Every structure is written in C-alpha cells, then in structure tokens.
Amino acid sequence: MPSELVGTWQLESWTARDERGAIQQPFGPSPTGLLVITADGWMSVLLTASDRPNFPTGSNPFGESAEQSAAFVTCISYAGRYRTDGDRLVTTVYVSSIPNWVGTEQIREVELANDSLILRPLPMAIPQGSIRSERQVTGHDEADGEAGRARRQVQAMANAVPLRNDLRWRHAR
Q1: Model's pTM, two decimal places?
Q2: How large is the C-alpha radius of gyration of the chain?
Q3: Which among 48, 30, 40 has a CA at the least distance from the CA of 5?
C-alpha cells in the first residue's frame, strides 16, 4: 500500500456522520485541501473550509481577533513522519495548526480504489462543553459575521459525537 499512497492528492469532499447516521459537511460543500505523501516517509495535509473570507484590505495583515478565530476554525494542517500498519496510515505529528497534536500519532483508516483515496480518522468524541461560544472567545455574539459562522460549524461538529469522518481525495493533476 505505501507506494500507492505516494503522491499529491486533492480533497474532493469531507463528510461526517454521527451515531444516528445524520450527515454533515464540517467545512461546507466545497472544502479545499492538499495531501502530500512522499516516498521517503513524510506527509503533509492542509484542509480549508468553503468560502473562507479574506481579511479586510488595509487592516492588520494577520487579521483582527474575530477574523483570526474564524480563520483558525476553518483550517486544519499537520505534517510529520508516517508509516502504514495494515489498512491504516499512522502519522507522528511534527507540526500542526492544532498545538495539542504535535508529538501525537494521528491514525487514519485507508481505502484505495482506482484514482481515489478515502481517509477515515478513527471516530472521535468531543467532550460536550469543550467548545466555547463566540461570545466567550471574543465577546461577540455567535451570529456576528464570519467568525460566528465558523464557530457554528465547529459547534455542529461537537454536537454530533461520535463522528465518523470520510475525507475523499483524488490524485492531483
């Protein structure tokens, strides 16, 4: 399997299914992402939500607090050394947008079919109450703009525990 994984993959879709079978799209209907798997044992992945807004022109180039919050919850990235274990891809995380992942192993079930790759993180359970509201984070109401929209996406994921995620990829051309 390792040689079949090597290459650059583009994200086609990300769906999450809760224990009742309800399907969600955590990053919207058209998320973007790249997965790069090298022959010498490294991988890197970047996922972003649909329609991420730009920071306003002329403002702080890194955005203001609410904009940074919206950008953070609509982007996931990590990279590290990988190995395969049966039908699983195990990555020892070297760097990540989620600081708690550094030094951990991220395990994904792998399904290969023709030019498609499906990665399934092991079902995750997010403790209820672990995701703070936008008001707690920034002092603004969750309905406030893009930060509120992004925060609601993450809250929807947290309300559907445990999640079974399917990330479908195709070889980049």
Answers
A1: 0.77
A2: 17
A3: 40
Across the chain, the runs of DSSP E, i.e. the strands, are: 7-17, 23-24, 32-37, 42-48, 75-85, 88-96, 105-113, 116-121, 164-171
Query: Phi and psi (nearest 5°) for 18?
Result: -90, 180
- Domain spans of the chain, in order of start: 2-171
pLDDT number for residue 152: 59
Q: What are the C-alpha distances in Å from 84 to residues 11, 87, 93?
A: 20, 7, 14
d(CA 60, CA 111): 43
Place of tokens 């973007």: 32
So what's the pLDDT on residue 101?
92
Architecture of domain 2-171: Beta Barrel (2.40)
Residue pair 123/44 in contact (Cβ under 8 Å)? The answer is no
Tokens of 114: 């023709």
Per-block mean pLDDT, blocks of 10 residues, the chain (173 long): 89 88 88 96 95 79 84 93 95 95 94 91 56 43 55 54 81 85
Q: What's residue 116's pLDDT?
A: 93
- For residue 44, give both structure tokens: 């890197």
